[in-house]
Amino acid sequence: MDDRIIGHIDMDAFFAAVEERDKPWLKGLPVVIGADPKGGVGRGVVATANYAARKYGIHSALPIQKAWSYSESARKRGERGVVFITSRGRRYAEISKEVFDIVSSYVDTMQITSIDEAYFDITNTGSYEEAKRVARQIKKEITQKTKLTGSIGIGPNKMIAKIASDLQKPDGLTIISADETYDLLARLPLRTIPGIGPKVEEKFKRLGIATVEGARIFSWQEMQDMFGSHGFSLYQKLRGSGSVTLREPQVRKSIGKHKTFPEDTIDLDLIHAVIEEMGKKILASLHKKRFTGFRTIVLTVRFGDFETKSRSLTSSEPVHSLSILQARALKLLLPFFEATENPKQKKIRMVGLRLEKLQ
Ligand code: TTP
Ligand code: MG
Predict the structure, then answer these.
(1) Which comes out higher in pLDDT, residue 307 or 78?
(2) What is the pLDDT of residues 154-202, one digit of tens each?
(3) I need a labelling partner for 259 at 20 to 30 A (CA). Which of 69, 281, 293, 307 fits?
(4) Which of 87, 112, 116, 358 is the best mutation target for the ligand 1 pocket, counting ligand atoms within 8 Å of the beta carbon and taking the most?
C-alpha cells in the first residue's frame, strides 16, 4: 500500500477563543464557557476553559459549581476571578464551518470529527516538507480570516496526526513523519495512545510501565492475554500503526432513551420524574457527542396493552437549554393523561424521549 500523509486540526480552546474574539474586554482574563454557575448553585458542566482558567484546574466536563469554587479560591489568593459565559452553540457552529471551509479548500478529502476537529489527507503534497508548508498556509489563512488559532499535526495515519496536533498546543504545528513515528512514540506517556484509558494505564503501572516503549516488551499474544480482543489493536497502536481511511462523518440523526416501568402506571409525578431524568441524560450525551442543540423533541408512550403513540414538537430555532427541553417534554406528556391521547385512562408501560434535527 502506498504511504499516506494525514493531517489533523484541532482548534485551540475553541468556544472560549470565539468568545474572546467576539468580546475583546475578555483579553487576559480567565474565561469559562458552559452552564450558568448561578453564583455557585448552578447545574451543568464546563464546555471549555481558556488557558488562563485551566491554570485554576478548570477543564471540560467539570461541574460548573466546581469551576465556580475554583474561581472563588483564586480570588481569595488575590488572582483574577473567572468570567463565566453561557455557551452560544450556533455561533460556534458558524465559526466551525468557516474553519472547515478553509481547510477543505486546501485538501482533497476531509473527515470532520467534532465541532473543532478534522482529519485531512494531504498525500498529494508529495512529501512531509511540502505537507508542512501547506499546513502552515492553512493555519495562516484560518488566523487571518477568523482571528483564531488551531493546532495541526501531520503523520502517516490518523492516530499519529492526532497525537501530533496535541503535542504543541496552542497554535502548534507538529510533523511526525513515517520514519520518526516509532521512536517518537516510544518516549510518550501511555495515555497518549487513543484507547489507553485510566484502566489500561493502571494495569501497566502495576507492572512498573509508564511509557509506550515500556509496553512494547509484550508480544501480541501476551497483549491479547492481557486485554482480550483489544490486545492486538493496542499492540499495533503502540508501534504507531493506525487507520488512514477518511470517512465522511456519519450523520447522527437522533439521540434518545426509553424506560419500561417495573409495573404499568398512570402516576404523573413518577412518569414526569423519569422523563426529566432522561432529558438530563440525553442532553448530556448530546453535548458529549459535540452537538450544541436540537430542534425536534419526540415523546413516545407505550400503554399496558402495547398500543404505542408518539407526539413531537419542532421549533424553528435550535434549543440549547435543559429547562426548555424539560418544558417541551412536559407539554408533550400531559395529553397522555387527558382524554386527547388517553381517553380510557390506560396505564403506561414505557416512555421514551428522543431529540432529532440535531445541530
Ligand atoms: P476540544 O477540542 O476538546 O477542547 P478545546 O478546543 O476547548 O481546547 P483544546 O485547545 O485543548 O483543543 O473541544 C472543542 C470544543 O468542544 C470546546 O471548545 C467545547 C466543546 N466541548 C464540550 O462542550 N464538552 C466537552 O466535554 C468537550 C471536551 C468539549
Ligand atoms: Mg480544540
Answers:
(1) 78
(2) 999 999 999 999 999 999 999 999 999 999 999 999 999 998 999 999 9
(3) 293
(4) 116
What is the 346 CA–ligand 2 centroid distance (Å)?
50
Alpha helix positions (H), the chain: 14-22, 51-54, 64-76, 89-104, 128-146, 158-167, 178-186, 198-206, 212-215, 220-227, 231-238, 268-288, 322-333
Under CATH, which architecture does the 16-87 domain have?
3-Layer(aba) Sandwich (3.40)
116 CA distance to ligand 2 centroid (A)?
6
Please tell me the CATH code under which domain 6-14+90-177 is placed. 3.30.70.270
For the question of whether the overall pTM of this predicted structure is more than 0.85, the answer is no
In short, whether 10's Cβ falls inside 6 Å of ligand 1 is yes
Catalogue the active-site residues.
117
Enter the C-alpha cell of residue 247. 470517512
**Dihedral sign, Cα of residue 325, residue 331, residue 336, residue 341:** negative
Q: Cis peptide leading into 335, omega within 30 of 0?
A: no
Q: Which atom of ligand 1 is nearest to the CA of 16?
A: 18
How far apart (Å, rounded) are the C-alpha atoms in residues 270 and 255?
Answer: 23
CATH class of 254-356: alpha beta
Q: Domain locations in the chain?
A: 6-14+90-177, 16-87, 187-237, 254-356
Q: What is the pLDDT of residues 59-115, one digit of tens each?
A: 999 999 999 999 999 999 999 999 999 999 999 999 999 999 999 888 878 999 999
CA of 130 to the centre of ligand 1 (A): 29
Residue 291 CB less than 6 A away from ligand 1: no
Pocket probe for ligand 1: among 12, 14, 149, 171, the residue whose CB has the most ligand atoms within 8 Å is: 14
Q: How confident is the model at residue 44 (pLDDT cuts 50, 70, 90)?
A: confident
**What's the CA gap between 150 and 168, in Å, rounded?**
11
